[in-house]
Structure formats: C-alpha cells, structure tokens
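Comment on both lines for my students:
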Amino acid sequence: MWSFFSRDPTKDFPYEVGDPVPGLEDKSVWTLHKGKKRGTQDEVSIFLFDVQKHSETLFDIAKASLKRLKTIRHPSLLHYLDSCETEKCLYVATEVVKPLSKHIEDMKLEGQQRELFLAWGIFQITRALSFFNNDGNIKHNNVCLYSVFVTAAEEWKLGGFEFITSHGQEGSSVIPIKILPALEIYDPPEKKDATKLKSVTKCSSDMWGLGCLIWEAYNGPLKNQPSLKTVDNIPKQLCTLYCELVSANPASRPNPADIITRCRKLGGYFKNDLIDTMLFLEEIQIKDKAEKAKFFSTLSSYLDSFPEAVCIHKILPQLMTSFHYGDAGSAVLGPMFKLGKLLEDAEYQKQIVPCVVKLFASNDRTTRSRLLQQLDQFIMHLQNSTVNDQIFPQVIHGFLDTNAVIREQTVKSIVHLAPKLNYNNLNVEVLRHFARLQSKDDQGGIRTNTTVCLGKIAAHLHPQIRQKVLVSAFVRATRDSFPPARQAGVLALAATQQYFLLSEVANRVLPALCPLTADPEKQVRDAAFRTIKGFLGKLEKVSEDPSLKEGMEADVHTATPSLSNAAATWAGWAVTAVTAKFYRSHSDTAKVQHPVKSTLSKPGSLEQPSSSSMSTTTSSVTSMTSLEHSESASDYDPEHWDMTAWGEIDSSAATTGGSGKSGTSSAGGAGGLAALCEDEWDNDEWGELQEQPAAESELASPSETWNNSEWNQPMQNANATFVRNTSRLEHKPAAHQNSNDSLGGWEDGEFEPIEENADQNNASKMDEMRRKREERKLQRQREMEARRTARGQGPMKLGTKITAPAPPF
C-alpha cells in the first residue's frame, strides 16, 4: 500500500526525455530537450526545470509559467500537451519546437523566401501580442529572440510566460524584475525612468520587446540597447513602424491591433503572398466555393517562392483537410500534386496515394480529366499493384465514356500507365479498347491519338502481341478518313520499324504506304514518300549484305529493346501537351476536306518521358526519337538513310493546307525517319481538332485545356465511323458508340480496305453503276421488242385487239 503512494510520478508521464536542444542556456529558467511519446514514438519537445539546481523563487516562476501555458490557448502561442512534477524536476511537454535564435542561426533561406519567412513570423508574434494586450488584458513582459520558438512548419510561437502580469491589477504599471541578468537588456527605458511610468500603456512594454525582436530577426542577438538605432538591415517599409516601437516615449508606441491593420494594407509589410495564403487557409471553412476555386487556381504559381517547410508541414495538410472534409473538389489537385513532389516516398505513399485512389473512383468528369492530365506528376510514386488493382479498373471506364474529353485523356494516360500494367491489362484490355476506338470512334482526333499512343507503348507490349498488332493497326490508320490519322499511321510505321520483320515490310507495310503517295493532303504524301524511301533503303541494304538481317530484326522478338532504338518517345506530339493543336474539322466524314488557311499558335510541348526502364529522358525539343541507330549488332548502318536526302518539312506547309512545298537539305545526317518524326509531330500548325460542345455542364474539346475560352463553340457531329458487318466494313453516319458494342480487334482478317466516300472514288463508281443500269435497261427493251415481233408473226390469240389502219382523209 505504501509503495502505491511512493511510486515515481514520471511513470505516469507518457513521454521520454531525450537530448538537450541548444539555444536557451542562460536566457530562460527552462532547458529544452527532444522527446518522444511512449508507444507512438511521436516527436515532442520537453521543457525541463531542475528543482535541485535552482532557487525557490525560480521554481515559483516556473510553476506560474506552466499555469499560464496550460490555461492560455491561441494559434500563435506555444501549444501545451502535458506536464509532470517530481521532487527533482518539472517536465512540460509541448509541440516540437526549436528556439528562434538557433533556427535563424541555422537557416539556409535566402532572398524572397527569407523575407517571407520573417514577415510571416513577425506577423504571428504581433497577432499573439494583440491577443494578450487587447483580448486578455495582460502583458507578456518578456518578448525577445529567446521567448519565441519555431515549429516544423516554420511558424513562430510565443513562449516564455515567466513574467506575465495583468494590466488591471494593483502595481501592474511597474515592470517586473527579471531575475535572469541576461534578459535585462530587453527592459524598456521607462523601467529606469520613474517619470515615464505614468505614460505606460497596457501594450507599451510588449511593443518595446517587439521592436527588439524585429531588430534581432534581421541583425542577430542584441548585445546592447544603443545598437537598436542601427536600421540598415531592416526593410524600408518596416522602418517607420520599427522606430515607433523603440521610441523612448511609451505612449507613442502603437497598439498591436493597429500595427496589423496598417501593415495589412496594400504595400504594407504584412501584405504578401505567403501571409495572404496562410490567412485564407485558416479561414477556408467559412469561404464560399467560388472563393476556394479562385484561391486554388492561383496557389500553384506562388508555391515556388514559399519556404519548403511551410509548404510541406502547413499548406499541404490544409489542402488534404480541404479535400477530405471540404468542398474544394478537383481544384485542389494542382497544388496538392505539386507539393507532393517535396515529400519523401514513404510520406507520399501515406498522404497522397490514398487521395489519388479515392479520386480515380470519382464520377465527376472534371475531377477525372484533371487527374488524367496530371498523371505524369504522380505516376512514378505509385506501386505496380496499386495501378493494376485500384487505378486501372477505374481508368478503363474512360474508354467507354460518352464525352470525347474523357476518352481522349484516357487514351493519353496509357502512355504513363503502360510501364506499370501487367500482361492482361496492357496486352488484352488496353489493346481491345484501342482497336475499338481506332476503328469506330466518331472523333478523328481520338482515332489519331490512339495510333500515336499505340506507337508510344509499343516497347512495353509483349513481343508476340506486338508483332501481331502493330502493322495491322497502323495500316488501318493509313486508311482513315481523317488526314492527321493517316499521317499518324505513316509516322508510327516509320518510328516502330525495328519491330517489323523484313518480310512484313515488303509484303504488308510498303503495299499499304504506296496508295498514300497520291493522298489529297500534301503532309500525308510527304510522310508517305519519306517513309517508303526509308524502308526501301533498309531492304536494299539487306539485299546487298544479308548478314545485316539478323541485326535489323533483333528487337522483333525481344521484350526489352536496345536503348539505341528508344522508340518509346518517337513522336514530337507530347501526350501531356494538352494545348497541342489539330485540324479544325467541321466534318470528319469520309469526304476529305482541305484545312482552312489560317494563322495558328505554337503548341507548348509538355512531353514527359516514360518511366520505363528502356526509355530515355529527353527535353521537349528532342523528345522525338529517330530511327538513327548506333553501330551495334542489332542495328543497321545509319548512313543508309543519308542517300534519301530527306531534309526537313517546311512548317508553312501545314498553314496552307498542304499547298506549300517542303524544304529539303542536300546534306544528310543520320536523320532518316527521325527527321520525319521530328518535323511532322512537332508541327505546330495543325489547328484545332473540331468545334467544341456548347453545353456548360460537359467538358470541352479533347485537345484543349480546361481554361480554354473556346469551349462554348458547338460541336459538329457529322463525323463518320466504320462499323464491321459480317464480311465487310460498311460506312455509316457517325454516332456515339454504345458501351455494349462489340470491341473490334486487330486480327489480320479484319483489315479489308475501308470504303472511302471521297468524291473522286464515288464519281467513278456511280458512273459505272449508271452505265450498267442503262445497258441492262436497253437490253430488256430489245428483248421485249423481239418478243412482240415474234408474237405478231404467229397465229392470233384470243382477246388480241385488232388494230385497223387509220382511214385516209
């Protein structure tokens, strides 16, 4: 029983005391230590007072300070957690903090980030003093560099409650005596001048301390009071206020509430992006949806100038809270993913990945589209199992969405997902949907981008599937009614040439390319001519030296192609370049229409390298991988491509709708098909894909960004699609495909020529049919006349009308 009353009280204190933290020493009655909570191992700070080493007076001051810390709560005050008193020590547990003196000494911030950090900190202390003086009617009496602490989020917290007094109590005008000699330097001048004590206000002593704190923030620890006259390092916009704070007349020192009001005005010291952001986040729960949307849309542009610790430990948690419990919606995704890049991988998995998985399950189209657009920012942090089991099953629904934006963004997202997808998801599910989109989708741009994406993910496909699919799919694209789709098919064949057997090149690829040499679009013709020359040169090289065949076909059956081929980034068209322009097509029917001559803007390429092990990181300028190969066993001689003297395509050709002439260069590097891919897919003058839908509730063009002002234009649905009907393909008017439609495949037998509805083809067919009908009609008339003649020469039959000759007149 007696052991129960005599047990050690520290056993009930759920914190372990760790190593001491320097910075306070003789400036406080406390010593600061690191600490951890038992069980969870969460980090805390422990303020320790050694009873045996200090006097009874200091012990009373420490207990009074603890009492104030327990009872006074404010966002800018040190946050109390727990305490414990024993015969030897007094323990106080708080949030993890560091003395401001030590933090400034170790701080590596420079320039704008340093200025924002200091302004935000001084604002927080001013706000805390306003709470003390105006709301609590008490005086702190100990404001200095050593009574301020900094959290992990680089927030300044006011501590040092050892000398707090109430303003209304008797003798409150007398400034308390600080037993620690090192703190006497911060005493205001009226302490030694009794004549000035009558003009002391409830905030005058604390405002003197705030002036000392500002001077120390920019100059370091204060050595003597005359140094306060040096204002060289203090910002000019703060100098006037600083001089008022350290005025010898107590009555002239401003109230902290007035300081905040003055400095928060336009051009004031407290009017900056960081303080505006932090104050908005503190009040985000009372902001309306429009204010939140505007705030989140501009937040990303400010984050680079904010201190990293503030972004990670303060802004990001607020964004996560707004996402989980508020109505921030998809607007929070941009800044959240940008800040997620600052996290360690373990923290990213813990904080961001669960949000990503939750967002992909959302039915909101805007949220899904923004996720797909920003997939490149977080895909590298996702585990393969998470992608295959939780994300891909949600992404795949986008292939069947009735909105063209979602379908196109889903197609583009596969480029980033492909390296992480398993065999079934990539080689079966993705290709099944790609086949349907390429043959049946009513949007020409989606059919084009499907071909482009298939070329980009070719390196990740299984070799057997790749050999079976690529040629058939790209040949299908060359027969599309949409000119950019045909061009995409040609360039895809050129860029993935290392995956084709030479027999396929001769028997399937070249026969499919030859008709395109007479294509109505000059861009398509140019691409076809150059690609044909390249493949012919390759075959000719093997014909001269058959030993090269094995090297040229080395990548056909390999799961990991050589890095020198690097076909993963073959096209200049960047999948993540949402602003990429395509032809503005009023009707994507089988009838070929020449693009309207117009001046177009250059697209901003946002090409992101694939995270595959075989992909190479390239800039937006060199993101197109060419067919030039190093001299290895698996590559043919790149000098062969020089003989074709390909040269570069004149960028003005696209502007004139194919009427311009392409430039050529006499010198041939190892350009080959590489020049074709670079020139064609970097062509910035394709124009927009099509008109935009007018419905405000739906998303806009697949090729436009979310802020595009052209979303309200009407979309023309006169596009055409080709539907497989038994043994042949029938051409039918375009319509949104039902999600239950059978998914087309890329079997060889399914690639009969697609019937074109072009005027030049139909005219000849109609003439031929009309001629045959006329011939049959004339033949029937001749037969009928012959039968009449035969009947007239034979015996007359019953009922035959006798025709008498006309009487003469």
Q: What stands out?
A: The mean pLDDT is 74. The radius of gyration is 39 Å. The longest helix spans residues 759-793.
